């Protein structure tokens, strides 16, 4: 059967990864969470005290980094490994989350991550979620979706998720983080977050996860 690339871009916390995972599972495709790659690079930079403002230091650090997704059969999905270490448990905390958009705005970091992402999609059959997948990484992707949702709805969902993982935070901090990242991601010079001209907009504010997944699967099946 024909294989396609599904590019899922949009604002923070609107349900991209949850949807991408389920769509990939249903189609027997590979799910690639590109946010995890920018988070892993941020983790390396913070751990090694890399000066983000110094392009020479950034280039040197990127030369020392290898990123790959390793399939975890128990979870049924790939986990991000940085220099052969599984860094999934360390990349979703507030320290990383509050710095990742600064790191993701650096040109050299984008070139590095985009090159890796393009290699991962060579054989198609992928659902890739991020911010610039339909515009920069795979501008010829067969299906492009741009997801969004009301910021309060997104923040409440994220808060619930964080509380369930025992993270101590509150609604106003989560709203501030989401608004700040959306602003930085949409206004940066390099590959800003924006809807591709040919992307379908899906507003998830009033949708359940199942409705969201079904709407993307319906769009995908039309392309197959
Ligand atoms: O899950 P959430 O939407 O909160 O974030 P994420 O998808 O893990 O992405 C974290 C950050 O990485 C985003 O806020 C962007 O700054 C950056 N990112 C990017 O610039 N380009 C991508 N393709 C994916 C993520
Ligand atoms: O990847 P992105 O940052 O766009 O969002 P996500 O990590 O997939 O979803 C953020 C949170 O919202 C997760 O806890 C999802 O389970 C939840 N969610 C929800 O409750 N209802 C939806 N319709 C979509 C997402």
UniProtKB/TrEMBL annotation:
<dbReference type="InterPro" id="IPR011994">
    <property type="entry name" value="Cytidylate_kinase_dom"/>
</dbReference>
<dbReference type="InterPro" id="IPR027417">
    <property type="entry name" value="P-loop_NTPase"/>
</dbReference>
<dbReference type="GO" id="GO:0005524">
    <property type="term" value="F:ATP binding"/>
</dbReference>
<keyword id="KW-0963">Cytoplasm</keyword>
<feature type="binding site">
    <location>
        <begin position="10"/>
        <end position="18"/>
    </location>
    <ligand>
        <name>ATP</name>
    </ligand>
</feature>
<keyword id="KW-0808">Transferase</keyword>
<comment type="similarity">
    <text>Belongs to the cytidylate kinase family. Type 1 subfamily.</text>
</comment>
<protein>
    <recommendedName>
        <fullName>Cytidylate kinase</fullName>
        <ecNumber>2.7.4.25</ecNumber>
    </recommendedName>
</protein>
<keyword id="KW-0418">Kinase</keyword>
<keyword id="KW-0067">ATP-binding</keyword>
<feature type="domain" description="Cytidylate kinase">
    <location>
        <begin position="6"/>
        <end position="221"/>
    </location>
</feature>
<dbReference type="Pfam" id="PF02224">
    <property type="entry name" value="Cytidylate_kin"/>
</dbReference>
<dbReference type="InterPro" id="IPR003136">
    <property type="entry name" value="Cytidylate_kin"/>
</dbReference>
<dbReference type="GO" id="GO:0015949">
    <property type="term" value="P:nucleobase-containing small molecule interconversion"/>
</dbReference>
<dbReference type="GO" id="GO:0036431">
    <property type="term" value="F:dCMP kinase activity"/>
</dbReference>
<dbReference type="GO" id="GO:0006220">
    <property type="term" value="P:pyrimidine nucleotide metabolic process"/>
</dbReference>
<dbReference type="GO" id="GO:0005829">
    <property type="term" value="C:cytosol"/>
</dbReference>
<keyword id="KW-0547">Nucleotide-binding</keyword>
């Amino acid at each position: 059967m024909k294989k396609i690339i599904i590019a899922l871009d949009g604002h923070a916390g609107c349900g991209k990864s949850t949807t991408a995972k389920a769509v990939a599972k249903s189609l027997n495709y590979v799910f690639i969470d590109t946010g995890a790659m920018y988070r892993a690079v941020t983790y390396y930079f913070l751990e090694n005290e890399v000066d983000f403002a110094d392009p020479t230091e950034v280039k040197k650090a990127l030369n020392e980094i290898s990123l790959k997704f390793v399939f975890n059969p128990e979870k049924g999905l790939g986990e991000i490994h940085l220099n052969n270490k599984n860094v999934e448990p360390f990349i979703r905390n507030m320290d990383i989350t509050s710095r990742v958009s600064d790191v993701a705005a650096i040109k050299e970091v984008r070139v590095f991550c985009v090159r890796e992402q393009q290699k991962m999609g060579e054989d198609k059959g992928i659902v890739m979620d991020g911010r610039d997948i339909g515009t920069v990484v795979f501008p010829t992707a067969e299906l492009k979706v741009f997801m969004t949702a009301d910021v309060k709805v997104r923040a409440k969902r994220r808060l619930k998720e964080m509380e369930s993982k025992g993270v101590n935070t509150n609604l106003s901090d989560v709203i501030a983080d989401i608004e700040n990242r959306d602003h930085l991601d949409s206004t940066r010079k390099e590959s800003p977050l924006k809807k591709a001209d040919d992307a379908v907009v899906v507003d998830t504010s009033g949708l359940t996860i199942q409705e969201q997944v079904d709407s993307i699967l319906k769009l995908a099946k039309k392309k197959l």
